Amino acid sequence: MNPIAIFWPMVAHFALVAAIYVLLGWRRRLAVTRDGAKIRQFKVRTEEPSASVTAANNLMNQFELPVLFHVVCLALFVTNGVSFVAVLLAWVFVALRYFHAYIHVTSNNLRIRSLTFAVGFIVLVLMWAWFALHLAGAV
User: Fold this and answer.
1) Cα(76)–Cα(91) distance, rounded to whole angstroms?
2) Where are the beta strands (DSSP E) in 4-136?
3) Closest C-alpha to 10, from 71, 56, 61
4) How far apart are CA 12 and CA 26, in angstroms?
5) φ, ψ for residue 85 (rounded to 5)?
6) How far apart are CA 57 and CA 74, in angstroms?
7) What are the residue boundaries of the structural domains of the chain, listed by start?
8) Are 97 and 16 in contact (CB under 8 A)?
9) Residues whose CB falls within 8 Å of the CB of residue 23, separated by 6 or more in sequence, listed in order
10) Helix (H) or strand (E) holding 80
Protein backbone atom coordinates (compact mmCIF):
# COMPACT_ATOMS: atom_id res chain seq x y z
CA MET A 1 0.00 0.00 0.00
CA ASN A 2 1.19 3.48 -0.84
CA PRO A 3 2.03 5.17 2.50
CA ILE A 4 0.61 8.52 1.41
CA ALA A 5 -2.84 6.91 1.37
CA ILE A 6 -3.06 7.67 5.10
CA PHE A 7 -3.10 11.39 4.29
CA TRP A 8 -6.35 11.31 2.28
CA PRO A 9 -8.58 10.67 5.30
CA MET A 10 -6.75 13.54 7.01
CA VAL A 11 -7.49 15.80 4.03
CA ALA A 12 -11.13 14.66 4.14
CA HIS A 13 -11.32 15.58 7.82
CA PHE A 14 -9.85 19.00 7.05
CA ALA A 15 -12.58 19.46 4.43
CA LEU A 16 -15.16 18.73 7.13
CA VAL A 17 -13.58 21.31 9.45
CA ALA A 18 -13.56 23.89 6.66
CA ALA A 19 -17.22 23.16 5.90
CA ILE A 20 -18.17 23.59 9.56
CA TYR A 21 -16.33 26.94 9.63
CA VAL A 22 -18.37 28.07 6.60
CA LEU A 23 -21.59 26.80 8.19
CA LEU A 24 -20.79 28.61 11.43
CA GLY A 25 -20.16 31.88 9.59
CA TRP A 26 -23.34 31.47 7.58
CA ARG A 27 -25.47 30.71 10.63
CA ARG A 28 -24.02 33.64 12.56
CA ARG A 29 -24.63 35.97 9.65
CA LEU A 30 -28.24 34.79 9.32
CA ALA A 31 -28.77 35.13 13.06
CA VAL A 32 -27.86 38.81 12.79
CA THR A 33 -29.37 39.73 9.42
CA ARG A 34 -32.52 37.61 9.46
CA ASP A 35 -33.27 36.76 13.08
CA GLY A 36 -32.30 40.04 14.75
CA ALA A 37 -29.49 38.73 16.93
CA LYS A 38 -27.14 41.36 18.28
CA ILE A 39 -23.39 41.15 17.74
CA ARG A 40 -22.81 41.29 21.51
CA GLN A 41 -24.62 37.93 21.83
CA PHE A 42 -21.62 36.26 20.23
CA LYS A 43 -19.19 37.37 22.96
CA VAL A 44 -20.40 34.68 25.35
CA ARG A 45 -21.55 31.31 24.05
CA THR A 46 -24.47 31.17 26.52
CA GLU A 47 -26.02 34.17 24.76
CA GLU A 48 -25.37 33.00 21.20
CA PRO A 49 -28.43 31.86 19.20
CA SER A 50 -28.90 28.08 19.28
CA ALA A 51 -28.54 27.57 15.51
CA SER A 52 -25.03 28.99 15.49
CA VAL A 53 -24.00 27.62 18.88
CA THR A 54 -24.52 24.03 17.69
CA ALA A 55 -22.20 24.72 14.74
CA ALA A 56 -19.67 26.33 17.11
CA ASN A 57 -19.88 23.34 19.45
CA ASN A 58 -19.37 20.96 16.56
CA LEU A 59 -16.36 22.94 15.42
CA MET A 60 -14.85 22.54 18.89
CA ASN A 61 -15.53 18.80 18.65
CA GLN A 62 -13.40 18.67 15.51
CA PHE A 63 -10.37 19.73 17.57
CA GLU A 64 -10.81 17.24 20.40
CA LEU A 65 -10.84 13.53 19.52
CA PRO A 66 -9.71 14.12 15.89
CA VAL A 67 -6.39 15.54 17.12
CA LEU A 68 -5.51 12.01 18.29
CA PHE A 69 -6.58 10.74 14.87
CA HIS A 70 -4.17 13.07 13.07
CA VAL A 71 -1.36 12.16 15.46
CA VAL A 72 -1.76 8.42 14.90
CA CYS A 73 -1.96 8.90 11.12
CA LEU A 74 1.31 10.85 11.16
CA ALA A 75 2.89 8.32 13.51
CA LEU A 76 1.92 5.47 11.20
CA PHE A 77 3.40 7.31 8.23
CA VAL A 78 6.68 8.20 9.98
CA THR A 79 7.21 4.64 11.22
CA ASN A 80 6.27 3.01 7.90
CA GLY A 81 3.19 1.52 9.52
CA VAL A 82 0.66 2.47 6.87
CA SER A 83 -1.30 -0.60 5.83
CA PHE A 84 -4.66 -1.45 4.34
CA VAL A 85 -6.08 -1.93 7.84
CA ALA A 86 -4.77 1.44 9.05
CA VAL A 87 -6.14 3.30 6.04
CA LEU A 88 -9.49 1.51 6.28
CA LEU A 89 -9.79 2.42 9.97
CA ALA A 90 -8.85 6.02 9.14
CA TRP A 91 -11.60 6.26 6.52
CA VAL A 92 -14.16 4.71 8.88
CA PHE A 93 -13.20 7.24 11.57
CA VAL A 94 -13.58 10.16 9.15
CA ALA A 95 -16.91 8.85 7.84
CA LEU A 96 -18.15 8.67 11.43
CA ARG A 97 -16.95 12.25 12.04
CA TYR A 98 -18.97 13.40 9.01
CA PHE A 99 -22.06 11.58 10.26
CA HIS A 100 -21.54 12.93 13.80
CA ALA A 101 -21.21 16.48 12.46
CA TYR A 102 -24.30 16.09 10.28
CA ILE A 103 -26.38 14.91 13.23
CA HIS A 104 -24.94 17.63 15.47
CA VAL A 105 -25.75 20.54 13.14
CA THR A 106 -29.16 19.24 12.00
CA SER A 107 -31.41 17.30 14.39
CA ASN A 108 -28.82 17.24 17.20
CA ASN A 109 -30.31 13.91 18.27
CA LEU A 110 -28.18 13.18 21.32
CA ARG A 111 -28.80 9.42 21.28
CA ILE A 112 -27.61 8.99 17.68
CA ARG A 113 -24.84 11.55 18.10
CA SER A 114 -23.52 9.86 21.25
CA LEU A 115 -23.60 6.43 19.64
CA THR A 116 -21.75 7.75 16.60
CA PHE A 117 -19.15 9.38 18.84
CA ALA A 118 -18.70 6.15 20.81
CA VAL A 119 -18.20 4.05 17.67
CA GLY A 120 -15.73 6.63 16.36
CA PHE A 121 -13.84 6.49 19.65
CA ILE A 122 -13.65 2.69 19.39
CA VAL A 123 -12.32 2.97 15.83
CA LEU A 124 -9.68 5.43 17.04
CA VAL A 125 -8.70 3.04 19.85
CA LEU A 126 -8.34 0.32 17.22
CA MET A 127 -6.09 2.60 15.16
CA TRP A 128 -3.85 3.21 18.17
CA ALA A 129 -3.84 -0.53 18.95
CA TRP A 130 -2.85 -1.24 15.33
CA PHE A 131 -0.06 1.32 15.66
CA ALA A 132 1.14 -0.31 18.91
CA LEU A 133 1.12 -3.74 17.23
CA HIS A 134 3.11 -2.25 14.36
CA LEU A 135 5.68 -0.85 16.79
CA ALA A 136 5.92 -4.22 18.50
CA GLY A 137 6.52 -5.87 15.13
CA ALA A 138 3.36 -7.97 15.43
CA VAL A 139 1.78 -6.72 12.19
Assistant:
1) 14
2) none
3) 71
4) 21
5) -60, -45
6) 26
7) 3-135
8) yes
9) 55, 105
10) none
